[in-house]
Specification:
Blueprint (H helix, E strand, L loop, with lengths): L1 H22 L9 E11 L6 E12 L6 E3 L6 E4 L3 E6 L2 E5 L5 E2 L5 E2 L5 E5 L13 E2 L14 E9 L20 E8 L5 E12 L4 E8 L2 E2 L1 E2 L7 E2 L2 E5 L5 E3 L2 E5 L5 E2 L11 E5 L4 E3 L4 E7 L7 E6 L4 E6 L4 E7 L1 E3 L7 E4 L2 E3 L8 E3 L8 E4 L1 E3 L5 H33 L2
Parallel strand pairs: 11-22, 11-23
Antiparallel strand pairs: 1-2, 3-33, 4-32, 5-6, 5-9, 5-28, 6-30, 7-8, 9-10, 9-27, 11-24, 12-13, 13-14, 14-15, 14-18, 16-17, 16-21, 18-19, 20-22, 25-26, 26-27, 28-31, 29-30
């Protein structure tokens, strides 16, 4: 009778585990379970062993990868590969594969239980600092404006062009210069302005070009002699192979009393501009400008929070800038099956799991964090339904064993 009872218990365990897997098929980050059994003998060592049925040894989890589903939610994350998200809550540390995260009312990154997501912090420059983990907190602050101080551009001046005959440069007369281009920039209050660069071929034999400048509608002037101000002029010279020879670095200092025209007005500070034209060339091709860069921007307000590739949590601002607030950490273990399931697609560490190793996405054996994606459960529904049928048949078969034992017992009692 005991053999049949042990068989019934084992079949019931299998039914419970299979049903649990099926019930959690749509749970994000869920890892399926499997039952473990062993045969039992009352005595062994001789030629004949006294059989005693089956022993239920417990369950283990399958930690194979679940399918990553795109959600479109800016703070959702899915791990592709090994590792777990690290969560802090109720005075404990939990580990999870479920990456549906959001912001708390205190602007901390949390999961659906309100547990705080742990990650690496950033320094004053916004660079991620590897080391101790901490809560990822979003700073709701605006970015102040920054005046442009550096401008760089790769320009080509057409070597086929010719000198303009005996004409004084006049910004209003296109025939008085060979080519002009405009750079966008910002003053100290974040107000946008335009700096126009005029080029005039001064000497075709020496490949020398004169440069003149205009900020918005005001020409920059050299006022060394206040009674006779002249346009500020610099020169570029080129080698025979079209590469720049001299004049590639130009400084226009609005604080210089000998220079006028760099006062943007409206209470903004005078502009101090460093022009890097060292990539300028003189080839027999059309005038062109590429790779324009400038370091100024207007003020910006926080628009949204997003997760970038690798688990970087970033704030997006109205001026197009973004600032990293932290990086979500991943924990890896030498033995994932040593973790203890605590519900809500979470686990806690044990000695059997080994000490956790905290690392960044894609490093130290950890998987990669994918933004706006969630990991589905790894339950194979088709296999579980087949296993359900098998467990049901096993239960029925063991019930028949008990029934047969009962018939035998009844026959003995009637002797």
């Amino acid at each position: 009778m005991n053999i049949g009872v042990s068989g019934l218990k084992a079949a019931q365990q299998e039914l419970d585990v299979t049903g649990h897997n099926i019930a959690n098929v749509d749970v994000v980050g869920f890892k399926s379970f499997r039952s473990m059994f062993a045969d039992v003998y009352a005595e062994s060592g001789g030629k004949m062993a006294q059989v005693s049925g089956v022993l239920t040894q417990g369950t283990s989890q399958r930690f194979n990868q679940g399918i990553l589903q795109t959600t479109g939610s800016s703070l959702d994350m899915g791990i592709e590969g090994s590792g777990f998200f690290v969560l802090s809550g109720d005075g404990n540390t939990f580990y999870s594969r479920a990456g549906y995260f959001g912001l708390s009312r205190n602007d901390d990154l949390v999961n659906n239980q309100g547990f705080k997501v742990q990650g690496f912090q950033v320094d004053d420059k916004g660079e991620v600092v590897a080391g101790a983990l901490g809560d990822i907190h979003i700073e709701r602050k605006s970015i102040p404006a920054r005046a442009t101080s550096q401008i760089s551009a790769a320009i080509n001046l057409d070597a086929r062009d010719s000198m303009i005959p005996a004409m004084v440069f006049d910004e209003h007369q296109p025939s008085s210069y060979n080519w002009a281009t405009t750079f966008g920039l910002y003053d100290s209050l974040g107000v946008p302005h335009q700096l126009t660069l005029f080029t005039v071929l001064a000497d075709s034999d020496s490949s020398t070009w004169d440069l003149f400048y205009r900020l918005d509608d005001q020409m920059l002037k050299d006022v060394s002699d206040p009674a006779h101000p002249v346009f500020r002029k610099d020169q570029l010279a080129f080698n025979g192979d079209g590469s720049i020879k001299s004049g590639g670095l130009v400084t226009l200092d609005g604080n210089d009393s000998k220079l006028s025209g760099l006062e943007p007005g409206g209470g903004a500070l005078p502009l101090v501009l460093n022009l890097d034209l060292s990539s300028t060339t003189q080839f027999g091709q059309d005038y062109s400008i590429a790779a324009i860069n400038q370091d100024g921007y207007t003020s910006g307000k926080m628009n949204a929070v997003q997760v970038d590739t690798g688990g970087l949590v970033q704030v997006l601002y109205s001026n197009g800038l973004k600032a990293t607030q932290g990086q979500v950490a991943l924990a890896t273990f030498t033995n994932d099956n040593g973790l203890v399931a605590t519900g809500n697609s979470s686990w806690q560490a044990t000695r059997d799991a080994g000490d956790p190793t905290y690392t960044q996405s894609g490093t130290g054996g950890a998987g990669v964090i994918n933004a706006q994606r969630l990991e589905s459960s790894n339950v194979d529904l088709s296999s579980e339904l087949v296993q359900l049928i098998v467990a049901q048949r096993n239960y029925q078969a063991n019930a028949r064993t008990l029934k047969a034992e009962d018939v035998v017992m009844q026959a003995l009692l009637t002797v």
